[in-house]
Amino acid sequence: MTRPVHIVLVYQSLLGIYGDRGNATVLTKRLQWRGIENTLTVAEPGDPLPDDADLYLLGGGEDGAQTTAVRLLTEEGTLHRAAERGSVVFGVCAGYQILGTTFTVGEMDRVMPGLGLLDVSTRRGTTRAVGEVLTRLRPLPGDVSPLAGDDALVTGFENHGGFTTLGADALPLADVEIGIGNGDATRTEGAIQGSVIGTYPHGPVLARNPALADFLLETALGHRLDPLPRPEIDKLRQERIGTIRRSSRG
Ligand code: GLN
């Protein structure tokens, strides 16, 4: 019997403008379909984040909101304790950037400190990355049977001006086939360091890519979960992958 899972959605009023709260819905649904009890806490600025959760989710947002979120999360320290004990901290776009060491905001590119949970830093890129992105997940640390073939493909919608460089302690999450991703010379996307994971695609990304959702759940629980065959989701994924590849050929 798998123990109950506690998920925390962090600061929707700051990091909630791209619909990434759908990632929480996907995780709770996938647990429910497997008969695993779960609780979802939506924590807003001013609320203490629960200290006992298995997964913390951060979404996309604007520069000002990123700065406020870092200040509040640094003051209260829950995410740092969570990362230390191996709970999953998953950030999308602005949420990804603030998990890093530094990021820039505003027209003057002011350098702001991040939470320092991922060894990545973000600076304004040469262009704004806007559009569909297609990446291939790398074999992830500790994964004994990594995803292969089309199962390892991730689709989503990216919309960011910041480009992210990985330091020595962070590993790329995926390689970019179409789109910009981190915007680095090696064409990688996202980063992972222990149980802290960041990625650019919205969608919500876990709705489009259930295998990534299960990877997060399995990392949080420390064991494998039974697969959930959903032919209709596989069909939708194939359609999206085909559309992105066709449209990128112009
Ligand atoms: N403000 C950040 C950027 O433009 C993040 C945007 C987002 O979360 N989509 O890089």
From TrEMBL:
Keyword flag Magnesium: no
Coiled coil: none
GO molecular function, one term: glutaminase activity
Protein's recorded name: Lipid II isoglutaminyl synthase (glutamine-hydrolyzing) subunit GatD
Gene for this chain: gatD
Family recorded in the similarity comment: Belongs to the CobB/CobQ family. GatD subfamily.
Catalytic activity reported: beta-D-GlcNAc-(1->4)-Mur2Ac(oyl-L-Ala-gamma-D-Glu-L-Lys-D-Ala-D-Ala)-di-trans,octa-cis-undecaprenyl diphosphate + L-glutamine + ATP + H2O = beta-D-GlcNAc-(1->4)-Mur2Ac(oyl-L-Ala-D-isoglutaminyl-L-Lys-D-Ala-D-Ala)-di-trans,octa-cis-undecaprenyl diphosphate + L-glutamate + ADP + phosphate + H(+); L-glutamine + H2O = L-glutamate + NH4(+)
Keyword Magnesium attributed: no
Active-site residues (renumbered): C93 (nucleophile), H202
Pfam families found in the cross-reference section: GATase_3
InterPro entries in the cross-refs: Class_I_gatase-like, CobQ_GATase1, GATase_3, Lipid_II_synth_GatD
Binding site for substrate: R128
Pathway of action: Cell wall biogenesis; peptidoglycan biosynthesis
Key words of the record: Cell shape, Cell wall biogenesis/degradation, Glutamine amidotransferase, Hydrolase, Ligase, Peptidoglycan synthesis
EC number from the UniProt entry: 6.3.5.13, 3.5.1.2
Role noted for this protein: The lipid II isoglutaminyl synthase complex catalyzes the formation of alpha-D-isoglutamine in the cell wall lipid II stem peptide. The GatD subunit catalyzes the hydrolysis of glutamine to glutamate and ammonia. The resulting ammonia molecule is channeled to the active site of MurT.
Boundaries of every CobB/CobQ-like glutamine amidotransferase domain copy: 7-209
Subunit (UniProt): Forms a heterodimer with MurT.
UniProt-listed PANTHER family: DETHIOBIOTIN SYNTHETASE, LIPID II ISOGLUTAMINYL SYNTHASE (GLUTAMINE-HYDROLYZING) SUBUNIT GATD
One Gene Ontology biological process: cell wall organization
